[in-house]
Amino acid sequence: MPRDFPRARRVGEQLQRELAQLVRDEVDDPRLGMVSISGVEVSRDLSHAKVFFSTLGTQEEADASLRVLQGAAGRLRHLLGQQIKMRNVPQLHFKQDQSIVEGARLSALIDKAVSDASRDQDDPEQEI
Predict the structure, then answer these.
(1) pTM of the model
(2) If you count DSSP H runs as helices and E runs as strands, how many of each does the chain have, helices first?
(3) Alpha helices (H) in 50-98, listed in sequence order
């Protein structure tokens, strides 16, 4: 696990707030679905930022949103440079956040295991 650097974390939080607003207000592309900026990880030297986003909809819509965000990365970086006071604005690398999908999958597996266990307990003919 990478070490947590307070300045990189603070810059990441600021970038997340600003990018959420910029994506909502400045990126005007019909292919961009309902996108939420879920996190930003900034490299130690503040030159690169991984921007994690989540979307509602199918995987194809998420892939289209990724392409739109990657295409708008230069403009978003320029607009960030105008809004925040940094010597160098990090390069933006967009990644789809899989934690929501993975969380739903794990929740479904847990629910299935619980229902299977309760069904097995209710079955009196079950041999041990």
Answers:
(1) 0.76
(2) 4, 3
(3) 59-71, 73-83
- pLDDT tens-digit map of 7-47: 889 899 999 999 999 998 888 888 887 888 999 999 999 99
CB of 69 within 8 A of CB of 25? no
CA angle 60, 42, 84 (to 5 degrees): 100
CATH of the domain at 43: 3.30.300.20
Q: What residue numbers bound the domain in which 66 lies?
A: 6-97
Going through the chain in order, the beta strands assigned E by DSSP cover 35-42, 48-55, 91-96
SS3 at position 69: helix
- SS3 of residue 33 by DSSP: coil
Instruction: Kindly report the number of other CB atoms within 10 A of residue 12's CB atom.
Output: 21
What does the block give as tokens for 85?
A: 């006071």
